[in-house]
Design brief:
mainly beta; seven-stranded mixed beta sheet; globular
Amino acid sequence: MKIQIRNDSVEIEGYVNAVGRDSRPMRDRSTGERFVEQIVPGVFTRALTRNDVDLLLNHDHERVLGSTKTNLELSEDSIGLKARATITDSEVIEKARAGKLRGWSFGFYDRDSRNEEVRDGLKRRYVEDMDLKEVSIIDDRKLPCYEGTLISARADEIIQGEVLEVRAEIAETKEYPKLTSYWERINHLGKD
């Protein structure tokens, strides 16, 4: 995530998801099965043609920061889903200044997927089609679903970031009925 801080706004850009790469191990809340998930290349491109996408803070539908109608640009390239947003929310600006923004996440409805057995009861779910409903900026209260997120900030100069090694610790999360996001499907990360 690249962050450019201004007096009255913050510009944030980076990858929401890298396609074709495993998520962390998650546990399906309804079945209890452990799985990792991959988004198949091209899925985001199709999803972006279907509807506008909201920009949230921490998957909180009461913290709408914008949308693809206003201040959010989304596109899929050979790496994955790339996002760029200019945010004027004072809390997000302060968190950016304090180095408390960690990365991105997203919420979607699964339209089509397939599973394969990987090892020791762990499955890999390939998402082959989706309805993308929201992308979220994740702060220090939550952890992005993917192992590492590049963080960098820019005010007058670029400050080199670091790759965050995220452990299997997770803060309590609020459940959102019907909408699927990584946070909604995680029961325990890395715990058997």
